[in-house]
Amino acid sequence: MKALLVPKKQAETLRKQLLEAGYMDTRRRLKVRGNDLEIPVNGYVPPEFVRFPNINQEKPEYYENEPTLQDLMKTYVDGDELDLLPGGWQILGNVVITSLHPDLYPLRAKVGDALLTIYPYCKSVYLDGGIKGELRRPSREIIAVREGVDEPSKTVHTENGCRFKLDVTKVMFSKGNLNERARMGRLGRDEVVIDMFAGIGYFTIHMAVHGGTEKITAIELNPESYQYLVENITLNHVEKIVEPVLGDCAENTPVSVADRVVMGYVGKTHQYLPYGIAALKQGGMLHYHETVPELLMPDRAMERISTEAKRQGRKVEIVHWHRVKKYAPGVWHVVVDARII
Ligand SMILES: C[S@@+](CC[C@H](N)C(=O)[O-])C[C@H]1O[C@@H](n2cnc3c(N)ncnc32)[C@H](O)[C@@H]1O
Fold this sequence. Notes:
This protein is of the alpha/beta class. The protein has 3 domains: 2-56, Alpha-Beta Plaits (2-Layer Sandwich), CATH 3.30.70; 69-152, CATH 3.30.300.110; 173-340, Rossmann fold, CATH 3.40.50.150.
């Protein structure tokens, strides 16, 4: 359990910053330690806060008497059915997104109300029906909303100091890609980058805010995601760095200009490899995402990059690969970093 050890005088300012940026672990209490305060944090803390020691909290204290979903649902559900209640959910800004066992669907409104009780700062709860199609559109049903709320599906989500405006019924925001988004934010200093599947700016905004990138061309096909991409560029004050492009990256990716290309899409990413590789200058870096069956991992992704590079008369140096998240039983979302020479 991590905490930042901060002098008492600076603690309140820092507590606000950490909370606003989404790094604070709000389940734990702040604790006094000599002249310092321990501010509980979720784990990764970016460089601007690293001036304070990131310690392991010896005796974390939790806020007590907070009801669990099980506690709140005991009136409506009993016995084994309590085990069917969701054990986790996603919070984007002030919107909760949860899945639900089909047997509990008739009780969805009660589950929604219970989640709003647990999260007093949240305004609505949506049931997740998965992400579909080429444009990665989510299927979501509202199950609870606070009185007087006008736009229950619109929110601003903060992650690693980046702000993402979105409508949870129109665009996705993957919980499992969090570390990969943070990693991209540490790359690209003084570089020209192309983000071929930019969405609302998942990678682009992290790179522009934290990476010190010179220029990013962010290409997005879905007009709704593109609209939020444009808004998020303004919200994060990176208009001078990011050029948004509405369209198909197969038609809009420039050739031989990039130091780095991000292909953050899964399913048919390999079909776009010709454009991703052609976009790179000699020695440029490709971040190629793919969903790969466990038995073919990571070879299939690497072979696809090598085959296309060879076809273009270029060489490949595989620098790194890792799993981003489990995609389906026996299938992993992986990313391969390949230098194209
Ligand atoms: C949702 S993002 C991937 C998620 C992201 N990696 C993350 O961290 O959450 C993929 C985006 O690619 C867009 N897309 C799909 N095909 C495209 C194409 N041919 N050209 C440009 N964008 C495309 C989709 O509309 C979608 O917004």
